[in-house]
Amino acid sequence: MTNTLTMLEIDRVAKRYGDSLAVADVSFTISKGEFIALMGPSGCGKTTTLRMIAGLDEPTGGEIRLWGRRLNEDAPWKRNAPLVWQNYALFPFLSVRKNIEFGLKQRGMPIRQRREKAFEWMERLGIAAYADRGIDQLSGGQRQRVALARALALEPEMLLLDEPLSALDPHLRVRMQSELVRLHRDLGITFVCVTHSHSEAFAMANRVVLMNEGQVQQIGTPREIHRRAANRFVAEFVGGNNLLSGTAVDAGNGLMRVDGPFGSTLARAPTDRVLQTGAEVTLVIAADCIDMLPARSGTGNEIEARVLTLEFIGSAVTVFLETLGGAELRIQRPLHEIENSPLSPLSPGQTVIARWSEDEGYFLPA
Amino acid sequence: MAFWAIPPILWQFAFFVVPLGFLVAMTFWSVRSFRLTPDMTLANWMFILKAGFFRSAYIYTFKLALLTALIASLSAFPAAYTLAFRLQPRTRRFLIFMLVVPFFTSYPVRIYSTQIFFSPEGIINAMIAPLGLGPVSVLDTPTGTVVGYLVLTLPLVLLLQTFALMNTPRDLIEAAHNLGCGRFRTILTVIVPTARVGLVLAATFAFVLSFGDYVAPLYLGGSNPPTLSILIADQVKSGNNWPRASVVAVTMILTLIVVMTAMLALAYGGRKKGRG
Amino acid sequence: MNAHHLRRGALFLWTALLLAFIFAPIVSTIIFSFNADRFPSLPWAGFSVRWYEAVFADATILRGLINSLIVAGATAIVASFLGFAAAYVDYRYRFLGKVVYTALIALPPAVPVVILGIAMLTFEGRLGLSGTLTGVAVGHIVLAVPFAMALVRMRLADLDPDIERAAWNLGATPWAAVSGVVIPFCLPAILASIFLTAAVSFDEFMIAWFVSGVNETLPVRVLAMLQGQVSPKINAIGAIVFVVSMSLVVIAQVLIGNRADRSSKRT
Predict the structure, then answer these.
(1) Per residue in C125-171, pLDDT tens?
(2) How many CB pairs under 8 A join B and C?
(3) Are chains B and A touching, using the cut-off of 8 Å on CB pairs and a minimum of 3 such pairs?
């Protein structure tokens, strides 16, 4: 991504509604052709940020620039940044075709040309059969496609999506997810997608902007965010992380020992700052980085723990363990691995050894 | 925004607020040698408020409107109850639609028709004569006026009461029955209090409409004694004394403001306490 | 059980009597408009359309009918435009004093028409509008705007505010969004309001009585005829007015009804 052009700059943007600050000082840039996810819990300011890009809300501070040009005061109808709305916001009194033609008509495209263009997009999204239907005769998934076609028919350089999948049932959601990814790849335009779901964001986006309480918490690839959370909020929000609180003790060789109710573990000391011996720290270990063994192997961190419960989510299993010191550990493993493990059948009350290497854990800033 | 916001308010301001303001201003004007002259005199107010004919007309109109509100409310209630609770939804929908019809049939024609009904040789007398009753003569009496007011107000009162009762939660009524509350007591202790706002609203409308009506007191009441609206019309059309007519009109508006405020208090008063 | 049946019977009887009281004047108007006898009473004197012929032969009545139609048409168009504008402002914008704004627009029907009439007469007299059909229409519009506003506002309650923004987002200017999205969405309500306000104006007699002067509308003519002796022509006029107004209201009702059907399907 280093040699791509910076397309959109969100520069110290803020949005205040009366006394409350929906967005406080948010900055990030978007390059041409990226698939950016704005992610965070509800009320974090992600949707407001998207609406400011679309011009539906005007920033009360900072600047939004497109190709270096200030965009703040441009009216929404002058920006070519079509939005796929959470509830689709399709025109209820217009047919599918007329919905898709709407934007083209506003641009003054002659009727035959926009018919053709609308037809192309309906074909492409598999809704040509419904061209003359009313919106109220469509299913949720079909409406979603109409909303997409209506926005894409404008052939924008940037498509905005506000929780595009939230109104779909889980089965459709997964299909639509991969379809969006394919569309993004085929069209080569920039997608900016708001979502509260980290699985959606991680599955689709090249880069994720994680927000909370009006502020950016972390910007990075899904992998970076998953493997190196910038702070406690991120580590907890993306899920699947064990956060262990303990006291740091220097162990030499760039390693740090952390003592806590889980016992004593080793991790690499952070390179960006110095941890004093005796400091209170939080150590993060991703749940899918922990192995379970029947007996100690003598390598890495090994902690004896008792199985509390097991949760089966599709082909993955989450195992909740309690260490002898009373700390809780969560482990995520593929189902087949659990089934084929010497520990099988795994059941509550069983004692196992939880193991992870020194490289897997990392420290959060205090 | 201005394109949409200004025309309606400008229209209502220019042709509603200003004329009413003008009406108020005119109560202080004087008529000199048959010509309306801007002035700041209280003479019109003094004249009207002191005039015996005004006072008796005021009391008469108020009394009759109040009586109408009462009769309309009480007589409509059993019918509203039947419509809301005792009829099939289809029948109810049909009747509700039918009750809208009177609003769009010429009221003067309905009054004319009523006049014929009650005339000495009219249908009512023709019907009761074989029973050895009558002849009744309500025309040109206060009773006639009230009958006319009822022609005007009953459809609205019945509609509003029906809507109010339909909104009473059914489970509340069932709960009352379940707790051993008899039908009649349920009406008094559950249905009337919960539908209070609508019932009071209906009575208020009945009062307001009757208080301002001109047709019924003229054609059924024989304008004898005159009501306030007849006073206004007389002052304007024959007497040509607009300032005095304006005084009557303004006292009517003030009366209605007081009545509506009182009724609103009656409708909503003590509500929050009841809920807490 | 017996007492229960009795009570039930009494309730139905009372309801029937009340409905009879409400509808008898309307029904008898229509029936007696076809009665051959001069005086509308029993026994029935035979079917006849002579009163209708008399009505259509009466130039003052015809003039009144035409005047009424002109006023109703003008009222319907202006009041529906103003009502739409007021409803849209209420739907779309938030501003200081909005309650006062909407209340002021909605208030006229709460004022007795006698008072509206005299206020109009005195005020319009100054403007030289009294005695003209324009003057009558001006008063009727004041009275009708709240009805138009209410109809359109109810419709707008079903319009997701995002829909208009979606139109902007697709490049529609605020004008294009209103004409391309908001008005088409409100069209059934706007048409309903045109018919309903026409009916309101067509039946209004008090403001018209004060203001119309020599340009009598039909209801004003009826009022004048009421003052004279019994005339079966009034029944014929009443029946004609009934048919005209009810057609307008039924059309309005059908337009609103379609909306209700469609929105219920949507859920």
Answers:
(1) 888 888 899 999 999 999 999 999 999 999 999 999 999 999 999 99
(2) 237
(3) no
What is the pTM assigned to this prediction? 0.85
Do the Cβ atoms of A85 and C166 come within 8 Å? yes
Whether C159 contacts C88, CB under 8 Å:
no
Please name the residue of chain B whose CA is at the shortest distance from the CA of residue C253: B97
How far apart (Å, rounded) are the C-alpha atoms in residues B94 and A322?
A: 69
Please indicate whether, in this complex, the C-beta atoms of A92 and C172 are within 8 angstroms of each other. no
Evaluate whether B178 touches B213 at the Cβ level (below 8 Å).
no
Per domain, the residue ranges of chain C are 58-266
Q: What's the CATH number where B205 sits?
A: 1.10.3720.10
Q: Tell me, yes or no, if A156 comes closer than 8 A to chain C by beta carbon.
A: no
Judge whether B223 lies within some domain.
Answer: yes
The answer to whether C170 contacts A87, with C-beta atoms less than 8 Å apart, is no
Residue B6 resides in a domain: no
Q: Is residue B205 part of a domain?
A: yes
Please report, to the nearest 10 degrees, the dihedral formed by the alpha carbons of residues C221, C223, C229, C233 taken in order: 50
With a cut of 50, say whether residue A230 has pLDDT above it: yes
| Predicted confidence (pLDDT) per residue in A120-156, tens digit | 999 999 999 999 999 999 998 999 999 999 999 999 9
Is residue B120 assigned to a domain? yes
Q: Which domains does chain A have, with CATH numbers?
A: 6-232 (3.40.50.300), 240-363 (2.40.50.100)
User: Considering only residues 100 to 139 of chain C, which have any Cβ-Cβ distance to chain A shorter than 8 Å?
Assistant: none
Topology of the domain covering C58-266: MetI-like fold (1.10.3720)
- Under a CB-based contact definition with an 8 Å cutoff, are residues A122 and A100 in contact? yes
| Cβ burial, residue B149 (10 Å; 0-12/13-18/19+) | buried
